[in-house]
Amino acid sequence: MKKNILLAVAVLATISMKAGDLTGLRIFDDSPTSNFSTTSYHPHGGGGGGGFSFGISLGAALPQSAWGAKAQEPSSNGSTSSNNVISDGFASVGLHLDATATYIFAGPVGATVMIGGNMNSFDAAKYQSVNNYPSFQTLTATNYYSGQFLVGPCLAFGSDFKVTVRGLVGMVMIGQPTYTTTSTIGSATETSVTTGKAGNGFGYGGGLGIKYNFNSSMGLLVNVDYLAANITYPDGSTTKTTVGSNSTTSSPTTYTQTMAFGLITASVGIAFNL
């Protein structure tokens, strides 16, 4: 998947560079002393693009790596001193929202800041099936909520139709769902609620921003990006078990968990040229 994405980025970047070369040509005016016609020269791509633009887009968040895998439960050897690897996160396709700010310094070279958020459901039905839950037990879970704060260099090519290729690094934060397991045997019901943990890690990736300007101040924006990170959850979970009117709360010895996080986002929105 990563190789295919990088290949697509490279191909589009090459095409965009060719378009950018044509855009940057300066042709002299058609005065009586000149044999050439007039074409304006736009150092930042023209078409009302300007040096700075801001965009907001909404779309899909597609989980990748261990976070999106759905084959087995997290591995653990029970040791409080070792790292427990979450091999499968059971995350499903969700909703993505981002805000991007891009400034072009000179020619095609600039910088991009991206702030994004994602909401992905936990596939509780698949988790129960994989882990052979008995018929008297059910599992429900809240959503995954994740966010990213990223910055990096970019190259922008084109005029009214502009393609921006960017590389991004920064912080990724993601909270685990809260899991509720309900066991019903006869008239007796036991409920266990495990509170999810908050984790974070260094993220890196890149993508494309495609903008078509309606006029000098506004345009249609399409963003496609890939993000990867190794998330660390430093704290243990808390489980509250309720049987009838009695409840007990347990907090296991703190241990560290890690999870390979991957995310593909595709979104559409509006860009403003400032």
List keywords for this structure.
single chain; 274 residues; mainly beta; Porin; 8-stranded antiparallel beta barrel; 5-stranded antiparallel β-sheet
Q: What would you note in describing this structure?
A:
12% of the residues lie in helices and 55% in strands. The protein is mainly beta and 274 residues long. The protein has one domain (2-25, 41-74, 86-246, 254-273): Porin (Beta Barrel), CATH 2.40.160. The strands form 2 sheets. Strands 1-3-4-6-7-10-11-14 form an 8-stranded antiparallel β-barrel. Strands 5-8-9-12-13 form a 5-stranded antiparallel beta sheet. Strand 6 and strand 7 form a beta hairpin. It is elongated. Mean pLDDT is 80; it is low at 1-49 and 75-82.
The coarse overall form would be elongated
What oligomeric state do these chains adopt? single chain
Overall helicity? 10-25%
Largest sheet: 8 strands, antiparallel, barrel
Alpha-carbon distance between the two ends: 36 Å
Name of the CATH architecture: Beta Barrel
Number of helices: 3
Instruction: Briefly note the structural class of the backbone.
Output: mainly beta
Number of domains: 1
β-strand percent reads over 45%
Series of secondary-structure elements, N-terminal to C-terminal: HEHEEEHEEEEEEEEEE
> Which regions are unreliable across 5 or more consecutive residues at pLDDT < 50?
1-49, 75-82
As laid out across the biggest beta sheet, the strand order is 1-3-4-6-7-10-11-14
Nearest-integer average pLDDT: 80
State the CATH class.
Mainly Beta
Radius of gyration: 25 Å
| Count of extended strands | 14
CATH fold annotation: Porin
